[in-house]
């Protein structure tokens, strides 16, 4: 950023764990370490990305309409919500304003790529419960609730919203196989849930 050097940005396109679209040149304008994100100037990228490339429609729109844009999180969010038809994978809640694009493996980890295969559309409660290891997702995509939480007695949110999801398969998954959660990433997250 300080040297104003051009960079190549490898953007995960959700066609498998190791398929990326190379976008270049891009320049980092500034960073927001507290949000773990960079502001990338894509102005110079205009016209470079092939319209017939597998790059998601959302990113293409950003490239053509926007010049300077906070890309990482918005693209991840829109791609994930689109893949899950704007519904929570755990409970199928369909209110966008209550939904997040959750990372299966947190982005601070090596595997925590901002690709749809590392994403799940989750409502605010299920996102927080997933991150807090109250709720886990098995590699076969069945929801598991932590044992002590299952024994707790409380109101309808705990009972219906969390405990009754135990042992249930995810309610919403992408229609496109290439956008399905990566089994290796689910493995990592599930192992973390079990050891928490
Ligand atoms: Zn939910």
Averaged pLDDT: 82
The major beta sheet can be summarized as: 4 strands, antiparallel
Q: Which strand order spans the largest sheet, edge to edge or round the barrel?
A: 1-2-3-4
The molecules bound to the chains, other than polymers, are:
zinc ion
Count every beta strand, where a strand is a DSSP E run of 2 or more residues: 8
Our count of helices gives 6
Euclidean distance between termini CA atoms: 37 Å
Classify the secondary structure makeup into a structural class: alpha+beta
Rg calc: 18 Å
Any idea how many domains?
A: 2
Molecular shape = elongated
Beta fraction of the residues? 15-25%
Poorly predicted sequence stretches spanning 5 or more consecutive residues:
44-51, 64-70
The sequence of SSEs as H and E is EEEHEHEEHEEHHH
Fraction in helix: 25-40%
